[in-house]
Specification:
Layout: E1 2-3, H1 9-17, E2 22-27, H2 41-57, E3 60-61, H3 85-101, E4 106-111, H4 117-130, E5 135-140, H5 146-152, H6 163-172, H7 217-240
Helix pairs in contact: 2-6, 2-7, 3-4, 6-7
Amino acid sequence: MNQWHQMTWEEIGQLVDSGMDAALLPVGATEQHGPHLGCGMDSEIAEKLSLQVADNTQIALLPTLPYGCSIGHSQRWPGTIALQPKTMIDVVKEIGDWVYASGFKRLFILNSHVSNFAPLRCALEMLRAEHDDFMVAIINSASVSERVKQRHFEDADDWHANEAETSLMMAVAPELVRESRIPESDDPDRTEDCVFSHPVNRTSLNGVTGKPSLASVEKGEELFAWMVEDLSGVVTKGMREEPPLAHGYFEKVKS
């Protein structure tokens, strides 16, 4: 497996010379996940999933970014450590700049926290505008495929620390789970028919949205296997993809 932080600069250069021009950046978050899950849940799933996918595809695996745009969780519950969107844009943009400087032409960003998507998309726009031959993709772990997305949304549209996430942690990181608190942690989705997007302090009593009481190790093992298989497929496809047209970003149309 090609883990960036374990490789020397010579080995990273040799990886590029061998034809591996793709890198994977796992992006998680540190935020409250109700009374039954550790605050590192999003980062844990990003890292565990990326390790398996990197093993399957031999892509260069960057260290996991453990902080994200979690300001919507408010300060009602201790534990959340959040980046402002503009900070996150800059952090990911600069990581991308250095990945490109090392010779990589493809960057897959695995996002495991829903609210990271907007700043990650901004960073993507900046990277591809500045580096003409740099291809960047954002893949949300909870919606990498239709079957994975369906499982995450089974018990709530505005889900958080729900059955799917609880099952995943029971299967791959049981040290993050407080099983004695699971039966009392269910909290319904209160966002149906809302016009505005409300912060979690105004939508949840305990930081949960969904039914963690339905979780099981078996459900988590099945879901994680789907995520590994489906993300490996997306990455493998992306490693072969070329732009539909060869026009340069700064190339002018000739009259």
